[in-house]
């Protein structure tokens, strides 16, 4: 395409310079535009090479590169720390007119039905997989959500007894595919977790014994398919592969305060939502509706102002 445009521009310059009444000024303008276009293409190719290089270093970047950056005025004004985050989802008029139960439910309904970015969908998928683990009696640390770009490739760290699962979650389109580089990244961060958190003075030989005993298991969970090579790598490295679609689930966390015994529920946009750990054995659970949470004696979490 660029070669075609170059030929057209050269032809235009030649015509302007050699017609019966030459237009030298116009020819110079076209020549200047051609030079600027050439610089633009050179910069474009440089950016394409840099992006390709970044992909090789950070495989997860492809998850967010197609997210649309919306104009500033698209976003709702974020409430200050002493305001209710429900105000992100209901109007001031609705907030004042509705009772607490009604406006909290309306805000939750709108959150669930809202058009989400790929990042938010990915976060909801991590929460969903965490919910499934908690149902099985695991204590879940939402490491990816809490640490962001510093998650080291660990979205969830799940504990049950002496068992530890290091979980990577990918909520991708079915058109995409998980490759061996993603498996390798998960395996590498599992090794790092073992050597930094479990046995700082250990070595790889001890790690391999640990993983063969099933005491630490790297788990890759996705909505899409794995390549044949990825499956071979996973089989060799003892990485558990799971394909789990994102489904509707009860999002309200009903938590009992360990110190006071207070029964508190958290909505998915509340500040402490991802730090709240649900333990079904202690009477904690996920509620589908605000009505269900309140009928079981839980109240909405008070606004958190920091430590």
Task: Outline the structure in words.
This protein is an alpha/beta fold and 307 residues long. The chain has 3 domains: 2-57; 120-243, Trna Endonuclease, Chain: A, domain 1 (3-Layer(aba) Sandwich), CATH 3.40.1350; 252-300, no CATH class. It has 10 helices and 11 strands. The chain has helices at 2-18, 24-57, 92-97, 100-113, 118-135, 143-147, 180-198, 204-212, 228-237, 290-295; strands at 139-141, 156-160, 163-170, 177-178, 216-222, 225-226, 240-243, 252-256, 263-266, 285-287, 299-300. The strands form 3 sheets. The chain has a 5-stranded mixed sheet with strand order 1-2-3-5-7, sandwiched between helices. β8 and β9 (263-266) form a beta hairpin. α1 runs antiparallel to α2 (24-57) and α7 (180-198) packs parallel to α9 (228-237). The longest helix is centred in the first third of the chain and has 34 residues, at 24-57. The N and C termini lie far apart (58 Å).
């Amino acid at each position: 395409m660029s070669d075609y445009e170059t030929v057209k521009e050269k032809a235009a310059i030649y015509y302007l310079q050699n017609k019966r009444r030459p237009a030298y000024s116009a020819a110079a303008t076209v020549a200047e535009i051609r030079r600027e276009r050439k610089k633009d293409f050179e910069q474009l190719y440089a950016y394409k090479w840099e992006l390709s290089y970044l992909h090789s270093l950070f495989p997860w970047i492809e998850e967010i590169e197609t997210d649309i950056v919306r104009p500033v005025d698209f976003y709702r004004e974020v409430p200050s720390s002493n305001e209710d985050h429900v105000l992100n989802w209901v109007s001031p008029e609705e907030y004042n007119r509705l009772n607490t139960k009604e406006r909290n439910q309306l805000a939750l309904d709108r959150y669930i039905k809202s058009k989400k970015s790929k990042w938010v969908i990915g976060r909801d998928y991590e929460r969903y997989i965490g919910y499934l683990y908690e149902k099985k009696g695991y204590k879940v640390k939402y490491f990816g959500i809490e640490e962001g770009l510093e998650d080291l490739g660990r979205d969830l760290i799940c504990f049950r007894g002496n068992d530890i699962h290091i979980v990577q979650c990918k909520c991708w389109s079915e058109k995409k595919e998980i490759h061996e580089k993603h498996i390798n990244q998960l395996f590498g961060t599992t090794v790092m977790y073992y050597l930094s958190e479990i046995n700082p003075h250990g070595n790889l030989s001890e790690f391999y014994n640990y993983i063969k005993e099933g005491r630490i298991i790297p788990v890759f969970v996705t909505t899409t398919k794995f390549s044949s090579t990825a499956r071979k790598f996973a089989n060799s490295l003892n990485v558990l592969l799971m394909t789990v679609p994102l489904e509707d689930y009860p999002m309200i966390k009903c938590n009992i305060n360990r110190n006071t015994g207070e029964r508190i529920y958290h909505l998915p946009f509340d500040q402490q939502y991802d730090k709240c750990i649900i333990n079904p054995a202690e009477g904690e659970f996920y509620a589908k509706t605000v009505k269900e949470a309140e009928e079981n004696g839980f109240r909405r979490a008070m606004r958190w102002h920091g430590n």
